[in-house]
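User: structure tokens for this one?
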Amino acid sequence: MAKKLLILGVMVIMALSLTLGLAGCGEGGLAQYKADAKAEITSHAAGLTESDYTPDNWALIGQKADEGKTAVDDARTKAAVDTAKTAAIQAMDGVSKTAEAIEAAMKLQARQTYLDEFVKPRYPEATIDDVSLFPFLGIYNNSLVASFYGGQYHGEYPDIVDSQEIDGLTFEWSRGYPILFWNDGSIYPLSVAFGQGLLTKENLIAVHGLYYNAGEPILKTGVYAIRTGWAQILLKEDGEYSMQQFNISRVIAGQYSQVNEKLSLIDGEYELVFTIDDGKVVFVGAYLDGNKEDWFFQSGTEFYFQK
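Assistant:
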């Protein structure tokens, strides 16, 4: 009997030790769980950009982060920690950004959508830097309207024509650069956006006015040169140009023309196509009878205005 009692006592002691040990591990595990959650809150706040917010709203983000950490400290279970952490992150994300920051984010998302849907399927090597919006025609109903341009790859695309007639008014959009509507990761022609109720007649009238008054990019006459200096282009006021490639002692000359964002230099049977950007021209390619040919420098080579 005594032996049985001794065995029972040992078992009870072992059970108590195991319970206390597990309890200790549980407390330690919860403490680490809380530390990780607070680190996530801190990391999320650090990932936000101060310039995207007004001073008051930036301070509010810090306040929401601190409140979230306090709620994590007060939590008694891992589930409660998760709830406090999620609420803090949502509260920080809910703080309003400036209109400029919202517009910049939408432009970036729209460029990425255009890249993924229209450029990368044919040119996997293309990047977000190959896509630009010119002209940008505004934000309507939390959606963006702009002319999308595919950089060095854009010359491969046919002209896109879109038209819409509303109450006797005809809207046509075509310059060789598609005017498109972006909304939450999807891109539509304007006529489709109107048909789905995403754009109103008033929106189209506003876009139409901006579109036809956007004008052409400014093409300055003078010298444009590659950063390394081995090639330069001289555009003269009389419509003539000369291009020097110092590394191979080559000079070509002829006439140039501008159509919207496109600069063309004529070299015999070749048309050298550039896009006009702010303070520079960017080489797209050399074309012979409409077909892109190899040239002495690569697509994407930038010539910066000097004087």
